[in-house]
Please model this.
Amino acid sequence: MALSHDQVHPQPGAAPQGALTVLGLESSCDDTAAAVLRRHGDGRIEVLAEAVMGQNSAHAPFGGVVPEIAARAHAERMDGLAAGVLNEAGLSPFDLDGVAATAGPGLIGGVMAALMTAKGIALGANLPLLAVNHLEGHALSPRLTHALAFPYLLLLVSGGHTQLVIVEGVGRMTRLGSTLDDAAGEAFDKTAKVMGLGFPGGPAVERYAQDAEAPDRFPLPMMLARDASCNFSFAGLKTAARRHWDGLDAPNDQDRADLAASMQAAIARHLAQRAGRAMSIFKSRFEALDSPLPLVAAGGVASNTAVREALQAEAQRHGFELIAPPLKYCTDNAAMIALAGAERLALGLTDGLDAAARPRWPLDQDAAAHDPASGSGRKGPKA
Model:
């Protein structure tokens, strides 16, 4: 039986002391990544080596990620990438304290590549296995570069996920809101595809938006305007943008730039507004914390400049400090997986070699089970 975070049993007295060195592997979507990280006894984090291999050129002709192509590329690259970062760090598997891998959520064929490689290394070198929730990797990623204490408010915004979560500790997440339909990154990608901007869509929209002459030219709706929750919705924005595009006669690059800017501004505005509501809730729950309170933005969309600026303004308005990882740690990477693994290892939380790859794995499993934001399927609640 697969072991989830809630099912893994801490081993009393088994938590290692002092520095921990962990190999992390990531392959949940279309980036194959490996990293070696050391967590020092005082909590200080040191990334000893890291590497990421993207697949943009392979997926560009299709305008999106093709799961079969992604899984094959991961399987071909993962072993060599893991060996490469170990060599760069001057270590062998026998020098490690544990090996961590994304075990979900994600494209199941891709997730299996990292997890199976990690299992082989763990078995061969007699190491603890850490089966990491990819979303928890993003949630903890700011701690790669910031001495960030728990609790903090997290806006996780990526190609597949958009949610507001209170992070109270490793494995202790409380969902405040999630998307009811599309993720923000999906709205970026699909709008870029409609306009023929190229792949990946998010960076393409941002590039075109820089050349906008009339960024307010295309009116786009404020989603969930009468909804008082912290949930998100992007399907209507995506549909409205497409209608504007279809209504243009022989659209040119200026039309592309103006619509890209309008769409980017609408997404940033919606993210900031809902984050503002979550900040009010967080402040009321943690009145004893010193100001400024932490708002963390993580995930690929958090690298968008307009989104960061909107969140920065909203954070200041609520007495929060916006904390975002460096751009390389916003997108999928293995350093955050190694960090999540090291944090779990420090608590004595390890997984068996029967840990399963999971296409869905909510951060707040109780909320997802009892109040799924976007429904459930055969493989469990989506968020």
The CA atoms of residues 18 and 41 lie 4 Å apart.
